[in-house]
Structures are given as structure tokens and as C-alpha cells.
UniProtKB/TrEMBL annotation:
Residues 1-20 are annotated as: Disordered. GO terms for cellular component: cytoplasm. Gene3D superfamilies: P-loop containing nucleotide triphosphate hydrolases (3.40.50.300). CDD domains: UreG. Facilitates the functional incorporation of the urease nickel metallocenter. This process requires GTP hydrolysis, probably effectuated by UreG. Residues 29-199 form the CobW/HypB/UreG nucleotide-binding domain. GO terms for molecular function: GTP binding; GTPase activity; nickel cation binding. It is found in: Cytoplasm. It comes from Streptomyces cellostaticus. Homodimer. UreD, UreF and UreG form a complex that acts as a GTP-hydrolysis-dependent molecular chaperone, activating the urease apoprotein by helping to assemble the nickel containing metallocenter of UreC. The UreE protein probably delivers the nickel. This is Urease accessory protein UreG.
Amino acid sequence: MHLDHTHHGPSALSADAHRPDGTRRALRIGLGGPVGSGKTATVAALCRALRDELSLAVVTNDIYTREDAEFLLREAVLPPERITAVETGACPHTAIRDDISANLEAVEDLEDAVGPLDLILVESGGDNLTATFSKGLVDAQIFVIDVAGGDDIPRKGGPGVTTADLLVVNKTDLAPYVGSDLARMAADAKAQRAELPVVFQSLRGETGAADVAAWVRERLAAWTA
Ligand SMILES: Nc1nc2c(ncn2[C@@H]2O[C@H](COP(=O)(O)OP(=O)(O)O)[C@@H](O)[C@H]2O)c(=O)[nH]1
Ligand SMILES: [Mg+2]
């Protein structure tokens, strides 16, 4: 699916919590963050952790390719009909923030095709530190950074780091090799985010994405309550 860069009026699809037939739609969680921080790897780990207990699907946003979706398909983290790719063209932030129609269509089509669904994960195309999701597209967002991107990223802030519902600091296994100070990153993140949660994780470690999966379960419990 290609993103049409011309702007349309308000989409017929909406952020309403119910589908046209009155059933509750899936909780939509966005994953944003810089290229290479571990968004796709986190999506894969979440699928493995949650697929036996939830009905879920994934939308990936790639700039020019379907590489993230193809990785998830190759890894068989979900049946193929539960993974959709949106090609965003040159501006990945537009597709998740300004003209969200292609992404809304993708999530609605997934619910029609394989629903009812409990959860849809939407991965943004790799972008910089400023990309955030429209609240019309997702109900909650996770911002993924990694320790190799520099331990000053939490201190520098930006909307993803400061306002995301969950901040994930990934690749903690690499901290000793790149000289990142995890305690400093934790203190800086706390200063930027006050009470908003932060998870430090290594997908190379034994617990993988367990903490993020637990956070998703909490959000889902609140959504369905
Ligand atoms: N060492 C290490 N590598 C990781 C971790 N998480 C992801 N990676 C690797 O980092 C690279 C980029 O990950 P990817 O999920 O594609 O990043 P994305 O661009 O944010 O989607 C891949 O080679 C992953 O295998 C981690 O926790 N530790
Ligand atoms: Mg990716």
C-alpha cells in the first residue's frame, strides 16, 4: 500500500473506540523512534510474548520498502495475514501524524480481515527524535531509543522521549561496549518524564521484551475495562 501524499479531508475512519457494527475495536499501540533502535525487534518479541493469549496484528511503515514486514514474515512471528506494510515515501512522520489515512485504512482492513482483534501494533518508519503518532491513529505510544545512540539522548528530550506513554531504552547489553552510562540515562529520563514509565531492556537477554509486554497487558486491561 502506498501513502498518497495529497491531503484528504477528515477520514471516514475515526479514532472512535467502536467499529461500525458496535463491537469494540482493537487497542492500537504505536512504536516510534530512531532508525535501528530496535522497534521491529521489539514488535517481534511482543508478538512472540503475546500471540498465545491475545488476538493481534501488526502494521509496519517503511520509507521505500516492505523490509520490516518482510522480516516479521520471515520470522513467522504471526500468520502472514496479520502483518501489513504501509510504504510511506519520503516522509515517515507524515504517515503517522499528519496524513494518517493509509495507516487508518491498514488497521481497519486488518480488523475486517482477521478480527476481532485485541491489539494492533503500528511501527513507524525509522525517523528522528521528533516523530510522534497522531492520537487519531494510536491509543498509546512507545518510543524506542537505544544505548548505542548516545547516552545523552534522554537528556536532550524531544517529544518522543518526554511524552511517549512508555520510553524503552533498548540494547542495554551494548552499554559496556559503547561507554553508555545507564544510571545517567535513567536519571535523565526520569527528569524529562516525571512519572511516565521507562523500561531498560536487552532483546539479547533472557527476559527480552517481558517488561514491555507487561505494560501492554496493563494498557489492554484498562482499554477493555
Ligand atoms: N545487541 C542488541 N541488538 C539489538 C537489540 N535489539 C535490536 N537489536 C538489533 O539492532 C538492529 C536494528 O533493530 P531493528 O529492530 O531493525 O530496528 P528498527 O529500525 O528500530 O526497527 C538489528 O540488527 C537488531 O537485531 C538488543 O537489545 N541488543
Ligand atoms: Mg523497523
